[in-house]
Amino acid sequence: MAKAVFHRHQRVYVEPVGTWAIIDKVNPVWAKGFEEPVRVTYDCGLGREFRAEELTAESEVDLQSEDGAASHQWRLMRAKNKWQTPENCAHHPFPGTYPIVVTDPNDWGGWRVPGAEYDRDPALIEMQARLIAAAPRFMRLAKDLTDYVKSEGDDLPDAMIRMAKRFDQLRKIVETQASDAYAKTAPQDSDSAE
Fold it and tell me: Is 100 helix (H, G, I), strand (E, B) or coil?
């Protein structure tokens, strides 16, 4: 017999799709002669129903980073396409939905794309959404690399030291408000230019 593991409106990570979603509907499948459902599936608005094994509950994440500041929990979610039916956009990776990146703990604010732009190149927009959602983790990883290089000093290979310097330049661009920051600190992407 099956029991519901998740509930309606619960936020879950959908492993086959690689994105976060909200459960729209819990679908128990009943069979005559059984007191409990024989199977339970979950509709997350992604075009098909998922089994409990394909979903992961949102765990309680420690929102405090190591330095005590609140960390950014950017996440990729899917919104229903109001202007096209799933049949009209069957060529999309997830027909009937489009990606949004939420940058606020209250599920609002962030990045969205116009429907016409998504329709032009859905694979590119999906990749951009995943990249934007992962940006805070990339920043943390690159900061850890830079801190490691600074702590080890000259004992590291030159290539690793150059990478750390390039990240430091990029970090200054991201963290600086000035409009001319890019022109002053533009990093060189090729090793030959350094």
Answer: strand
